[in-house]
Write a structure and sequence with these properties.
By secondary structure, the protein is mainly β. The protein has 4 helices and 27 strands. It folds into 2 domains: 201 residues, Sandwich (Jelly Rolls), CATH 2.60.120; 113 residues, Jelly Rolls. Strand 13 and strand 14 form a beta hairpin. The longest helix is centred in the middle third of the chain and has 9 residues.
Length: 323
Amino acid sequence: MSINIDTRLARFNDLIPSKIPFVEGKLKGHQDRLNYSIVGPGVSEDTKQNVKIAEAHGFNIGAVSAAPMNGSGLHSHTTAEVFLIFSGSWRFYWGTDGKEGEIVLHRGDVASFPTNMFRGFQNVSDQQALMFVVLGENDPGVITWTPSLLKKAKETGMVLLDDNSLIDLDKNEIPNGKKLIEPLQENELNQFDHYTSQEIEKFVIRSVDQNKYFLDDEHYNSNSILNYLDSFNIHNKDFNPNIDHKTGFGLTLLHGENAHIHTYTLPESEVYLCLEGEWEITCNESKVKIGPKDAFSPPKNSSRSLKNISGDKGSIFIIRQKK
């Protein structure tokens, strides 16, 4: 059975971003950023956010592009949030005041942040930077912001209503029957978790350390496998995760000059997200090629295969719904 490639393919250059995706959108250091929803709506507060692939996958995939010294303020999620760094250098900081700890991640680094903690991020490189974000579950819930951020955002005219919709008070009035979200009180803030930088490092795998984690799938010595989250199976071989974090999805990197996966089927949702190289995907009777920053989602139970055709080493992320 053939498929409609256009409904499954997300070419990054064709995506439509939101320029003010969150309540902090007018604040200095947060206003020069773009938010993309690739698979599922994510946690964007922009009701007009364009979603490329709306079908429920059991996880959401988005992307953030930011100018130097721009990023996201301190916030918390109720589901997993995993960052895949594609370009630039990103500083992640956390705690109610943002001073509990920090790490800096670079291209190819992966970090899976725990839930129930406040974290923010900032592009600390000297040019536009890009990262992708994978969020757990079909409905990743809503963002919880620190009280200080909500207060500063309100001074710019940006507020959140009790249905979590975003409104600009400079342009609109609060609708009848709606109320503003109130900032958390001190006793509520005390319920959030705290981490040292050393503790967060356990949830990080850096590109410079990849060789310590790469394993061969014993299939003609062509595939190097780095499995980050959940178990992964390729060519009848299982790979255990290197990050001990239950996210509700699996994340794996397939790498190599002749890297490939022979034809297989999968009843769960799956997405290929290209980091480098050019990859040819065969899905049922259709073929598609994707390059860096592009993503493709084969339909459930479809027959698919994957191979690097760039003539050089390539890397591609495989995100799978947990069984």
